[in-house]
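ok new one. same drill as before - structure tokens go in, u give me an amino acid for every spot. 287 of them this time. try not to just spam alanines like last time pls lmao
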């Protein structure tokens, strides 16, 4: 078990609180491998902005496990001499066990996503995670309603979070941040997103904890800014960076049929990825 006190990581509490007071959002970028983490960290260090590295359970399986990720991220912070706050966060933890495993491996923040269960079950599971996480200095995010998208075969199903449930849920669980599903979807949108700004604002006015926007890909900049003005303080982005990176790598491979060095292939997406991070950070007002 890794004790967070010895860790190079920070939880999301201070960075999100500062963002909430400052009227900007902290970027949450999902990582897929070592290079991805390195590029994001390097760019955020260059921009001097705090960052949350998100790890889905699928990405965790792909990379080998929570320990692998926790160690290489902390190794990067040390070897790259980073000075920015870095939070390592489990994205959409599907069970209490999964959250505990990530915490034991040194993650500084977790999301328990029990939004597909009944409100009672969601509260119970979230309470269990909070009880385990808080004494260990780890912050907890939870979700209410349902973000649409392709995962779980959910297609475009979206269930909006309700104000009263958000209040009750956060009182019952003591979570540190809440992701109320209000019309955003994971992956690309078919047509324009329709975010429920009025409900977002109402939740912001009633809750003192930071609000999280999932499905940050494909939301026009004016809607992102409006969401931030309605209380969003953390924005999760995955597909956008994947797509930007893949396009750059595809172009590189199309132009060089002989290249075989994986460092060149993977690295050919670095510049595009970093440029996109810069744009996002400026859109989120983080910088
Ligand atoms: P996108 O893939 O739509 O950017 O969503 C990412 C996300 O919400 C991760 O939790």
């Amino acid at each position: 078990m890794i004790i967070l006190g010895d860790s190079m990581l920070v939880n999301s509490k201070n960075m999100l609180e500062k963002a909430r007071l400052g009227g900007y959002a902290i970027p949450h970028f999902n990582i897929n491998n070592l290079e991805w983490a390195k590029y994001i960290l390097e760019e955020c260090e260059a921009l001097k902005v705090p960052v949350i590295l998100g790890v889905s359970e699928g990405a965790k399986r792909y990379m080998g496990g929570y320990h692998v990720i926790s160690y290489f991220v902390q190794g990067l912070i040390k070897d790259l001499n980073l000075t920015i706050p870095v939070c390592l966060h489990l994205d959409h933890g599907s069970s209490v066990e999964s959250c505990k495993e990530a915490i034991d491996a040194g993650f500084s923040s977790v999301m328990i996503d029990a939004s597909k269960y009944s409100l009672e079950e969601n509260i119970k599971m979230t309470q269990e995670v909070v009880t385990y996480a808080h004494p260990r200095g780890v912050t907890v995010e939870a979700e209410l309603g349902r973000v649409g998208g392709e995962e779980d075969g959910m297609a475009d199903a979206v269930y909006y979070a309700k104000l009263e449930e958000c209040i009750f849920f956060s009182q019952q669980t003591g979570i540190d941040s809440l992701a109320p599903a209000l019309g955003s979807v994971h992956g690309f949108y078919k047509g324009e997103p329709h975010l429920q700004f009025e409900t977002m604002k109402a939740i912001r006015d009633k809750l003192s904890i930071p609000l999280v926007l999932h499905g940050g890909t494909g939301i026009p900049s004016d809607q992102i800014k409006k969401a931030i003005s309605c209380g969003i303080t953390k924005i999760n982005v995955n597909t956008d960076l994947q797509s930007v990176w893949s396009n750059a790598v595809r172009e590189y491979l199309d132009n060089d049929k002989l290249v075989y060095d994986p460092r060149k292939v993977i690295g050919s997406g670095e510049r595009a990825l970093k440029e996109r991070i810069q744009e996002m950070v400026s859109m989120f007002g983080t910088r």
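The chain is about 45% helix and 15% strand. and btw The beta strands are 26-30, 51-55, 86-93, 109-112, 139-144, 177-180, 211-213, 232-237.
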